[in-house]
Amino acid sequence: MPAPSLVGQKAAEERVARLMGFLNDDGIKIIGVWGMGGVGKTTLVKNLNNMLNSSLESFDIVIWVKVSKDLDLRTIQSHIVERLNLELNEGESTQQRANKLFRSLMMKKKCLLILDEVWEKIDLDIVGVPQGHDQANCKILLTTRSLAVCRQMMTNADFRVDVLNEEDAWNLFVQNAGDIAELEGIHTHARANARKCCGLPLAINAVGKSLRNRTVIELWKNALSQLQCSVPHYGSSEEEIYLPLKLSYNSLPRFFSSGNPLRKIPDGFFREVRALRFLNLSGTHITSLPPSLLQLGELHALLLRDCPLLDKLPPLGALEKLQVLDLSGTRLRELPKEMCKLKNLRELNLSRTHHLEDIEAGTLSGLSSLEALDMSSSAYKWDVKCKTEQKTSLYELLSLEQFSVLHRRLDTVGCLALDSTWLGRLKKFSIEISPRSCSSNYLPNQHDEKVVILRRVDLMEIRLEGLLRNAFALDLVTCGGIREVSEIAGRRSLCGYQA
């Protein structure tokens, strides 16, 4: 079993020897190894497991089971069954499995069951592990963060794993960071970084590896500066390990890059990262977002660009600090009404939402800080009458004091002809007027300022004065009703045009 080496760590070697003493004591049946997270319990027991498996003098068989927080007795049974090379039928009940395991373990002269990461009491009788029988030669060793769990499991011997002393901590740090940590100019900073890991092997390994063979002194200084920052409150047993792990995390290469076909996010995935400010899931194949997303109260930007299978959003109103929301290229059919609660949202991108049909009235007008809306190449159809109780309309945008950028396609110029004076206050816009059947390849770019695009429109049948009065550029594509561009320019409504 892969495990970090304990060579050179005197304290760790002494711990292994002491645990071996417990295992060789016939009067001790259940041993509890406990200590705070990151202190090295699992590493210690893995090394012990490897030692015992390399020599069958102490035990006929050593069985390793990682329990973890979500306790599942059938999973524990499956791990033991696999190690014993037993056969089980899928339809067997937990009790039937337990009976088979009990008989098999009782036949062993001497066996050791190691239960790693135990968070709560495990009923060993239900699992099928012999205990309390004079003839039973099955010993149990468990690791846990809590002494209370040891007591609930009725341990005969409890062994606390504490942090490393300074000498062992430094030796472990050098193993991970490399001999460069001993060089003049770096040594002082390396020592300081090692001390900030507070003797926690998990933190020492993480920080050491993140600085391995780094020759730039500023990197060592910057790492120390990050470790000296104030630590958020996670409870006394977690605080000391938080920043070292954060530092190592910031040094990792990105694993899920944009475009990686991630398909599903577990429901509770974001529960433990509530301080997240920027989330980019663009280019993934997710079909929905997990409920835990709504617990990201500090989120400022949510990017879901080009998620072609995403067809539904959770109620986003809880993301009160959200400023940027990019839903372009998704399969959404409607926007959640709760979006109106996003009072700090400044940018909303709904471009290329070819399936968008419904935006309930009041949704956009509730976005009081909205500055920019991109709906280019969107299927959403604005009501020609402009005022409706069921669907949102352009009139909702008029009520937004900060609104200054709009990219939009319309079926008709009718809405704009009624009252186009509000276009004058926009700093930037691109408005395309074309039949719904007319496909458009136009996408706004950073060089466009105030653009009007007319496609397959009869220019003699519509009134363009109010619209063109505020435009800096005009794009005409397959339009009829005039013979020369000068007939439009003669209306004296353009500052400049392109065709």
UniProtKB/TrEMBL annotation:
It comes from the Eukaryota. The keyword Isomerase does not apply. InterPro entries: AAA+_ATPase, Apaf_helical, Leu-rich_rpt_typical-subtyp, LRR_dom_sf, LRR_R13L4/SHOC2-like, NB-ARC, P-loop_NTPase. The keyword Cell cycle does not apply. Residues 27-167 form the AAA+ ATPase domain. Keywords: Leucine-rich repeat, Plant defense, Repeat. It comes from Fagus sylvatica (Beechnut). This is AAA+ ATPase domain-containing protein. One of its GO terms (molecular function) is ADP binding.
